[in-house]
Amino acid sequence: MFSAERFRSLLAERGISQSELARRVGISQTAVNKLATGGAYGTKHIHLIARALRTSPSFLLGETDDPSPDAPIIEPERPVQFVTMQVALPSEDALAAMFRAMLRILPENATEDERAQILARRLPAALSQLRDLAP
């Protein structure tokens, strides 16, 4: 989300008025004021604004704490979520049949990693087609 506080700080540090920035970017001074006061959550002109303020869109959006124009984006850590649910598994024979069918469709020349990726991608569909789900 656009950071009005960072925006105002950069305007002051760079000595650029809202009117001057509006002129450089080609937007109204009212639009710049809305960004500076938090009355707007973003703008399609973020790249032009960042260039005029000699920073990066990532800094203005709070994706990095480095105001330099070429600052790398630091991905936020996503917390792991644990979910507990009951699952009714099919019989061992039904699972074995499903796995045999899945193994038959694997390309012979695929690497182990490629085969694992194919199996992982197809497992949900294969499980959903099993009919023997009685516990």
From TrEMBL:
<dbReference type="InterPro" id="IPR010982">
    <property type="entry name" value="Lambda_DNA-bd_dom_sf"/>
</dbReference>
<dbReference type="GO" id="GO:0003677">
    <property type="term" value="F:DNA binding"/>
</dbReference>
<feature type="domain" description="HTH cro/C1-type">
    <location>
        <begin position="7"/>
        <end position="60"/>
    </location>
</feature>
<dbReference type="Pfam" id="PF13443">
    <property type="entry name" value="HTH_26"/>
</dbReference>
<protein>
    <recommendedName>
        <fullName>HTH cro/C1-type domain-containing protein</fullName>
    </recommendedName>
</protein>
<dbReference type="InterPro" id="IPR001387">
    <property type="entry name" value="Cro/C1-type_HTH"/>
</dbReference>
